[in-house]
What does this fold into?
Amino acid sequence: MAFPTVLAELSWYDQFYPAGRTPEAIAEYLQKGFVDHGWQRDIGLDVACPGTHVQVSHGFDYVCSVWSGMFKVVDWIDGFADLQTLVIVRKPE
It folds into this structure.
C-alpha cells in the first residue's frame, strides 16, 4: 500500500475562493480534472531553478481514472492534513 497526498477539490475550492472562481475556471477544472497553479515561489524550494516545483490540484474522478492504470484506489480522505487529501492506493490484483 501507498499513502500519497494530493491537493484535491477541497483545497482548490478553499484556496481559490472567490479569486479565480469564474464559471469558466470551474468548468475547466471539472472537465480537465486538474489545475496547474504554476511555480510556487512562496515555498522556498528550487529558488535557483524556477519552474521545477509546481502545485497542481487533482479531482477525485481524475485520480481514479488516471491512477487506476497503476494502482487500485482504496480510499480518499479529504482534509487529512490541512488541505491535503489522503489517497490510499495498492497494487492492482
In short: The chain has one domain: 5-90.
